[in-house]
Write a structure and sequence with these properties.
disordered C terminus; alpha/beta; five-stranded mixed beta sheet; homodimer; globular
Chain lengths: 353, 353
């Protein structure tokens, strides 16, 4: 109550004795600043403690310009959003398009982020806004956002993103699982053994990403004489109804399904969400995934399994980044620390958690 | 303190003001009754709240005699153990050799447990000893026991049992993951796609269990003219140094490795423990597993990965069943309920949690 995280609501009905107080969680007690960095864009949002977006800015931004340039723009926009509200910000959540050591917030050999390898994102951000800064890869952030937005009552969910690359976010027992080195969900680097359902030869031992990502499909289509350089081009061809692009996308779904069928047996999720630009181009990718997962898995594991397209789209990213921070901030240990701060004065808007 | 879960220890050093009290967790405040049911044996143990075994009985018992006969013997032995101590029992943990719906404690179509399908184990047990009864399959129980006994500081561990069948127990973020229907870890029913490392033909789409379990290896050896009817026979042949049995076991390890390499990329465990009778026959199964997992997975996922034989052996089962109960019993909600009981009187030995 002292923190305003709980506030009294309505007149309580007395049942005799000491009158009970009715209280409710006050999601507006503080804000979270959420930064979604993509390859060519950034979205910055201010949310409440329920990850509900209060205000938002998007800007075209090339991640390859490096951490100083990109973060300066994002933080400048973030400060503008913060100045418009009069409650403290308890933390900043950042999603980046590459692998991150979550415990330190440093990208690890990110393929499309030149200049970011090993960069201490939290330390740099806190020079501007001195609050808790949490960083994770975009797929984990999307999994958190999709879960919170569309499947809040589901405990076991796997989110798969199929775009330029392939990655997954694993939620078990209601929590995002990062694994021992933060490398969980690295589905793109699974080697796909030969299957007789695949046109690939038995000698082919490439990673899933090299076989079934948007980039890989584009290469196949180019080899067959079509003009396709990227996942976006593949999505465009599929939307235009090109038969070769549709079949290649469906086959990519089957290859992804081979890997997901192992995931289904090992983790027994009730929902698999498929997102990313290739998935958004139509039902073909999902159809290929379903075809193999339902054929390969035993009925007990699939009878209550839904395989669905992403509902939240890109909005899930800023929601997920905010959820990541709110989950940490509302832990009992964090609340004790938060309580030690003076949140009453207007000047206390920006606070160290 | 009132529950005796915390007890004062030693003289506290005063730093002025109110003298601080030094307290310690009192694992002896209550006991857990742990029942490990195998195909042909039962082990019954009484443990403290740290799952440390106080006393134990083992008995030859055919699970196929059905639930009444088997549970009556196990509970009879359990009562003898309970009568020797003067603290309350807070719950009973039971492991069975087949799939179980953990939320209800009912076996689900267990292949080697005739008469047990859908049987309400907790309800039957509570007619004798009216406490909380939790039931799970033997592999989950072994995973909990191995984790508690040998890897208590590891958050992400996968336990694989290779014996008559193949199953796995998945621990992520320090907790056993059962999945949405309790079917997580069903590694035996994963279909293994063709790999050029395997002597199997591309058309072979059998489950892992049909290819690499002790039973499957025995069938292969029988076909090649050796006498082997069971996983135990395979283990004996391997121990005797038979070259064909050793190579078949190593190849089974490779097939298991194909599936585990997907698990490593998706869950990023730091430890994979391999147990069961086939694993205990020597290093050949483990060597096959390591060969494929290290070849197929990316360095980030395997550089801190240990693939090791089970340390605890069968002892892990009763420890794991006790851990399962203690975890539930020491949750905050359960302690509140426990506190409502009168634990002071000697007659309060058997208590409803």
């Amino acid at each position: 109550l002292a923190l305003r995280l709980l506030v009294p609501v309505g007149p309580a009905t007395s049942t005799g004795g000491r009158p009970p107080a009715q209280v409710a969680f006050n999601a507006g007690a503080a804000t979270v600043l959420s930064i979604d960095l993509g390859a060519t864009h950034a979205t910055i949002a201010l949310t409440d403690l329920n990850a509900k977006v209060i205000s938002q800015r998007s800007v075209a931004l090339d991640i390859a310009e490096g951490p100083h340039a990109v973060l300066d723009v994002a933080l400048g926009l973030g400060k503008e959003l913060l100045e418009q509200v009069d409650v403290p910000v308890i933390g900043i959540g950042i999603g980046v398009p590459g692998p991150v050591e979550h415990s330190t917030g440093r990208p690890i050999s990110p393929p499309i982020m030149p200049g970011w390898d090993g960069f201490d994102i939290p330390a740099y951000v806190r020079q501007s806004i001195d609050v808790t800064v949490l960083v994770d890869n975009d797929v984990n952030i999307l999994a958190l956002g999709e879960h919170a937005t569309s499947w809040p009552d589901v405990d076991d969910l796997v989110f798969v993103k199929v775009a330029t690359g392939i990655g997954a976010g694993v939620i078990s027992s209601g929590s995002l699982q990062r694994g021992s080195q933060g490398a969980a969900g690295d589905m793109g680097h699974v080697q796909v053994p030969y299957s007789r359902d695949s046109p690939r030869p038995p000698e082919d031992e490439r990673d899933l990403e090299a076989i079934a990502s948007g980039t890989a499909i584009a290469k196949q289509l180019t080899a067959s004489g079509l003009k396709a350089e990227s996942a976006a081009d593949v999505a465009d061809l599929v939307r235009s109804g090109d038969a070769r692009a549709i079949e290649a996308t469906r086959q990519a779904g089957r290859e992804i399904g081979e890997v997901l069928s192992v995931v289904v047996s090992m983790l027994n999720p009730s929902v698999i969400v498929v997102g990313g630009s290739v998935a958004r181009a139509g039902e073909h990718l999902l159809a290929g995934i379903k075809e193999i997962v339902y054929r390969r898995s035993i009925p007990l594991a699939t009878q209550h399994l839904s395989i669905v397209p992403s509902q939240s789209g890109e909005r899930a990213a800023v929601v997920g980044a905010a959820i990541m921070v709110a989950n940490r901030a509302l832990s009992p240990a964090a609340i004790d620390q938060f309580a030690a701060q003076d949140l009453g004065s207007p000047s206390a808007r920006v606070r160290v958690l």
